[in-house]
Amino acid sequence: MIPMLDLKRELADIGDEISKAVDKSIGETKFILGPNVKEFEKNAADYLGCKYTAGVASGTDALHLALKASGIKENDEVITTPFTFIATAEAIVYCGAKPVFVDIDPETMNINPELLEKSITEKTKAIIPVHLFGNPCRMDEIKQIADKYNLTVIEDCAQSFGATYNNKQTGTLGDIGCFSFFPSKNLGCYGDGGLISTNDENIYNNIMALRNHGSYEKYYHDRIGFNSRLDDIQAAILNVKIKYIDKANEDRILAAEKYKDIIQDSVSYQKVENKSKHVYHQFTIRSEKRNQIMSELQKHEIASAIYYPVPLHLQKSFASLNHKEGDLPVSEKLAQEVLSLPVNPYLEDEEITIISEIVKLASGK
After folding, report:
1. C-beta of residue 77 within 8 angstroms of C-beta of residue 83
2. 168 among known catalytic residues
3. CB of 178 within 8 A of CB of 55?
4. For residue 333, what is the enclosing H or E element?
5. Which terminus of the chain faces fewer neighbouring Cβ atoms within 10 Å, N or C?
6. Given 125, 143, 185, 241, which residue is catalytic?
7. What is the per-residue pLDDT across 58-75, written as a single tens digit (0 to 9) for each?
8. What is the pTM of this model?
């Protein structure tokens, strides 16, 4: 069996160091906003190259709080991609705002900047570009449009910790960055966790209150907030793992390049712009024979996954937006063709070769 991600191999590598960090956190008994959270927030800010970070309970909460801190409210509109995990759009709805879906570039699989302007209205207040699978969006163009219309840019970096664009980290290219530390992520904890990054002191201060029941000082509440705090044990794990993130990402990149070398033009791949460093949270191929490839991999006990089988504009949860098939044709086509193969820092060359040969055979090319 070859899984999508093998955390047992990770534990065999750095498990002792993680266990010591967890034991130390437990021994200090400062579980809520404790010393490891503060240490991780500093480590993350230093790594990303931004002024402020705030640990929160999840990537979903990071998006929600970022939107709230930006002043997004009922009847506002926020532009994003339909080809993403539902949390991106859920966070918009949590604020009472309307998600406005813009189709994607068929090659990068990210939101297409060339389609943005025609979706901007007087109600539009923000854009959420998603660096899908770890591949940075065309942020120069997105920022230029956002600046023209005075829109906030909130980066969804749930899958892109360590990815860069123009040698700058994702999460520092817009006004706010939102990260997820779900266990499968490139930088993942062993539970739920998230982070918000920004260089804006006012936004940071708003988020610090919002994550902690609207409070800056214990038992004094300036506003209605939320309970969304990264816990100290998860932060302890992240403080260990962030030391290895560059090596882990480089190993993912090497695995992706090995796949491409063997599979070659049997399928197509996510395009990486010259300005971008893709960190391959997922290695995703496209093929009209996607289902045959997936079936053949299953026969050999090799995992694969479809991210995402139904674009958000066609999900039942967004039926009120009155979208229909054909509205966003590129996203709809990719949903029928994409397949993500196992990719992680511990994937062995022999495993990559086996998977690649099966993909080539099943694709018929």
Report:
1. no
2. no
3. no
4. helix 329-337
5. N
6. 185
7. 999 999 999 999 999 999
8. 0.98
